[in-house]
Amino acid sequence: MDQTTPAKKKQRTCVACGATDTKRALLRIVRSPLGVVSFDPSGRAPGRGAYVCSAECFAAARKAGKLDRALRTKLGEQDLERIAGEMSRDTSRCVGRE
Q1: Does the structural domain 11-90 have CATH classification 3.30.1230.10?
Q2: In the chain, which ranges are E strands?
């Protein structure tokens, strides 16, 4: 009798509130190898990522500078506005999150 255990789903942590969930349940912001920071709707873009669980947590992380720390880069106000716009345009992943 084969007693294999099912693979565990890796958990990610929201940088703002500390909530943990699966990768697909959180929103990912990524710093590409070229240094460009953007919203990653697929969750698969190469680079250093930071996760938030909602638009409210994005705003809180933005205010506290937690995205700068998690992505190991300095984000300007224009960068943060652009990322917020990218997140709001991606309604397919954001529906029902808030």
Answers
A1: yes
A2: 11-13, 20-22, 27-31, 37-40, 48-52
Longest dimension (CA), the chain: 59
Give the Cα separation of 74 and 36 in Å (integer). 11
Residue carrying the six token digits 């705003």 = 59
For residues 82 and 36, what is the distance between their CA atoms, to the nearest angstrom?
12
Residue 55: name the closest of 12, 10, 91 by CA: 91
Backbone angles phi, psi at 48, to 5 degrees: -85, 130
Q: Which residue has the tokens 């990610």?
A: 12
Per-residue pLDDT tens, the chain, 98 aa: give them. Answer: 567 777 778 899 999 999 999 999 999 999 999 999 999 999 999 999 999 999 999 999 999 999 999 999 999 999 999 999 999 988 544 444 44
pTM: 0.83
Residues in the chain: 98
